[in-house]
Structure to design on (285 residues):
């Protein structure tokens, strides 16, 4: 983790403690759970989870907590906002945050594919009934393309890798967008890091990337074994979505290359995997 990120995590953690205390929640310590694009901390002894971002990038927080609250009331498999405080965005001048119920993890941590697929299908069924405004998946892909095109935001990318990523993003986005598949509201990033294994079952968290598109776009972000337990998937479309999601994730890793060691490891690995998949698909058609 870079010094810049460490400083942001420390300031965000301190802000979470101050804000929790101002809301009447006992706040003596905050344990960092995540330190990527946002700081996620568990505040104790009140035992709540604060999701903290810099105020300049907090535009998604209100729609995210509102969506999770609606889904929770529908009985969807989602983590619920903290019931002891108002369900809205809180914070200070520099940082904004939302508060969520903390769930103790249940062993084993590994999620069985059949339960994972069933939970994702249940989530999608609830989300399909909502007319909530959300960006189209092509807008998310376009943002990734913007990062890949900009040497200032992805300075570690070599020229040929940059051209390859841009080409993959454009090609796969066009392919998925022109498929004619039914579209609906999606989680956006339902990978295993955004699924909690709790005593109440599997619960999805982090709706920051919620968007509209075919369900295959979400299914492409979960392990392949899970897709076999999600009924009605268009397998050809799923393959295109996997290629698109891999290109997007690879680009995001290159954008954070200098901030986290795990991203420095993942960026070239994902790019290499994408090249193998692209070469195979181009040969087999």
């Amino acid at each position: 983790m870079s010094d810049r990120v460490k400083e942001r995590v420390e300031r965000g953690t301190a802000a979470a403690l101050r804000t929790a205390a101002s809301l009447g929640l006992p706040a003596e310590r905050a344990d960092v759970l995540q330190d990527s694009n946002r700081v996620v901390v568990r505040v104790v002894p009140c035992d709540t989870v604060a999701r903290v971002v810099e105020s300049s990038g907090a535009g998604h927080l209100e729609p995210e907590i509102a969506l999770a609250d609606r889904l929770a009331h529908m009985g969807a498999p989602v983590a619920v906002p903290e019931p002891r405080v108002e369900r809205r965005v809180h914070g200070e001048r520099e940082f904004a945050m939302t508060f969520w119920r903390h769930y103790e993890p249940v062993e084993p941590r590994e999620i069985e594919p059949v339960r994972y697929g069933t939970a994702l299908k249940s989530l999608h069924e609830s989300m399909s009934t909502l007319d909530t405004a959300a960006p189209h998946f092509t807008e998310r892909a376009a943002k990734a393309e913007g990062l890949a095109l900009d040497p200032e935001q992805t300075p570690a990318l070599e020229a040929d890798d940059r051209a390859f990523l841009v080409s993959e993003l454009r090609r796969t986005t066009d392919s998925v967008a022109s498929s004619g598949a039914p579209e609906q509201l999606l989680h956006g990033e339902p990978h295993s890091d955004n699924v909690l294994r709790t005593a109440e079952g599997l619960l999805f968290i982090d709706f920051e990337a919620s968007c509209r598109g075919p369900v295959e776009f979400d299914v492409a972000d979960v392990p392949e074994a899970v897709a076999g337990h999600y009924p009605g998937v268009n397998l050809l479309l799923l393959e295109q979505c996997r290629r698109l999601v891999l290109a997007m994730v690879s680009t995001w890793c290159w954008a954070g290359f200098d901030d986290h060691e795990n991203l420095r490891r993942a960026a070239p690995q994902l790019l290499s995997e994408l090249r193998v998949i692209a070469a195979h698909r181009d040969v087999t058609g």
Observations:
- The longest helix spans residues 261-284.
- Strands lie at 27-35, 39-45, 48-54, 90-91, 95-101, 184-186, 195-198, 201-204, 211-213.
